[in-house]
């Protein structure tokens, strides 16, 4: 079952699209907070986005650009602004297809199904992990939080990835070092301490003090 995010402020249209796609077995969600589409995007981790151009606060081009900073998920623009200039701009901004309003729901479903097949026939995977507004980009090895971007070293990134994959669970220092060794980062106990200390300093600089917690006698965790 694929997850689809609908970014459409006309609730009649949004509900019609959602109902049609749900009938085909897709898990479909509609945006409710148009001030922060990205937060809902990373929470749902959709396999495809249906995106209107004319939206409250920021237009669809803005949100397409923001999504493209963290993900290559397929995006289909849906808009009545279907002149050549807008279609070209939608594609140039990172859109994969364009459907002009008004449209036939059968055409919408067919295009969605086709794009999902092309994209995920060999298996698709989200390239970001999000927790409490903190986004870890698995492709660029960067962390993003409230418009701040952190460049991470290889070890810092791997440590955070391990903790993000085990939210709420304390991971032992030995387990972390073993994972780092598996990725050809040969470190000892002292080096791990240095890496964690440096990582915490970077996180604190962007307002994430005490984000990585120490569990005495066990290891580290992100709650």
Provide an overview of this structure.
This protein is an alpha/beta fold. The protein has 2 domains: 118 residues, Response regulator (Rossmann fold, 3-Layer(aba) Sandwich), CATH 3.40.50; 94 residues, Orthogonal Bundle (Arc Repressor Mutant, subunit A). Helices cover 42% and strands 21% of the residues. It contains 8 helices and 12 strands. A 5-stranded parallel sheet has the order 2-1-3-4-5, sandwiched between helices. Strand 7 and strand 8 form a beta hairpin. Helix 1 crosses helix 5. The radius of gyration is 20 Å and the shape is elongated.
Give the structure's gist in a few sentences.
This protein has 223 residues and is α/β, with parallel strands linked by helices. The chain has eight helices and twelve strands. The chain is elongated, with a radius of gyration of 20 Å.
Give the fraction of residues assigned to helices: 40-55%
Number of domains: 2
CATH superfamily of the largest domain: Response regulator
Task: Tell me about the largest β-sheet.
Answer: 5 strands, parallel
Task: Report the CATH architecture of the largest domain.
Answer: 3-Layer(aba) Sandwich
Strand content: 15-25%
- How many strand segments? 12
Distance between the termini: 29 Å
């Amino acid at each position: 079952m694929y997850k689809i995010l609908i970014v459409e402020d006309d609730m009649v249209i949004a509900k019609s699209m959602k109902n049609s796609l749900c009938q085909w077995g897709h898990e479909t969600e509609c945006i409710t907070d148009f001030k922060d589409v990205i937060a809902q995007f990373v929470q749902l981790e959709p396999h495809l986005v249906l995106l209107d151009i004319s939206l409250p606060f920021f237009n669809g081009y803005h949100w397409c650009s923001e999504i493209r900073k963290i993900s290559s998920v397929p995006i289909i623009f849906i808009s009545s602004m279907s002149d050549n200039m807008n279609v070209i701009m939608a594609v140039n901004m990172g859109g994969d297809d364009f459907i002009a309003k008004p449209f036939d729901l059968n055409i919408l479903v067919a295009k969605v199904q086709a794009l999902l097949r092309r994209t995920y026939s060999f298996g698709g995977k989200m390239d970001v992990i999000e927790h409490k507004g903190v986004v870890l980009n698995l492709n660029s090895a960067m962390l993003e939080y409230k418009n701040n971007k952190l460049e991470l070293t290889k070890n810092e990134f791997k440590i955070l990835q391990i903790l993000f994959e085990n939210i709420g669970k304390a991971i032992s220092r030995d387990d972390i070092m073993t994972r780092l060794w598996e990725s050809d980062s040969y470190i000892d106990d002292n080096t791990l301490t240095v890496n964690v200390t440096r990582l915490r300093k970077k996180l604190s600089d962007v307002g994430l003090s005490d984000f990585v917690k120490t569990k005495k006698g066990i290891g580290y965790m992100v709650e």
